[in-house]
Every structure is written in C-alpha cells, then in structure tokens.
Amino acid sequence: MLHEICRINIQMSSSQLPLFDLTSFQTEEALYMRPGKGDRLETCDCASRVTIPVKDIHTIDREVDIMHVEADRIEIAGKVIHVRVDSLNQAYTVASRRLESSRRSHGGRTYNHLVHVGPSERMLLETIRLQVENGDWEVPPSPTHLPSV
Length: 149
Known about the structure:
The protein has 149 residues and is α+β, with helices and mostly antiparallel strands. The chain has four helices and ten strands. It has one domain (3-133). Strands 7-8-6-3-2-9-10 form a seven-stranded antiparallel sheet. The radius of gyration is 16 Å and the shape is elongated.
C-alpha cells in the first residue's frame, strides 16, 4: 500500500556544515511512502531537484566527478548548482559528496537530516514518517492537491 505524503520542499540540515542548511530539495511529483525494512515505511523514488549553494564552482566535468551524476543532470547558475535526482537518498548523497568531500561515506539517516518546509512549520522527515506509520499524517494542500470548488 502506498501512502501519499505530498509535493514537498525539503531543506537539508547539518549542525556541522552551514551550507548544508541552505541546500534544498524540491520534488517534481507527489512523494509516496511504502512498506520497507522491518515494520518501517520508506519513501518511494521521486523525480526531484536538489539545489546546492557552493563557495566555488568547478567545470561541469569536475562536478560530475565529485557528485557521481551524469553531466546532463547538472545545471550551474552563479554560485548555485542544481542537480536532477531520482530520490531523497540520492539528493542527500549528491549534496554530501559536493559539500563534505572529505567524508568516507556519503549516505546516512536521511530521515534525520531532511526537513519538510511547510507554509507554517518545519518538520523532520522522520517525524512525518512516524505520523504516516501511526495514521496521523494529513496530506497538506499543494498545487497538486487543491480542494475542488
């Protein structure tokens, strides 16, 4: 069974890296959760775009090497890099590769580092996952979920 979350705006968060706090992720379609490992839900793949502010820009070829994505997925505008990704995990990994290049591993508990930015509040994706698992999550109105008139 799929559980619809919504189209969301997500901000990445890291207490150690200020630029990570400015990195954002925008879904281009509705985000769903499905049963995953154990009794937990996990997000389904979702076409999205991660926006990474950087201090220094490299050539596209160098950005491809750093982030391990295809060149046609990268767009550079000033000191901001936009990357088309296929999932929340890929967004977090790509941003980590670009902003934390010295780390050995670029994965992690994305649910604890992704923050849904709603119109009136911010909420960790882990909190949303718990609400969905408990049946307490209500899909917020968005351009794709406006009430019918």
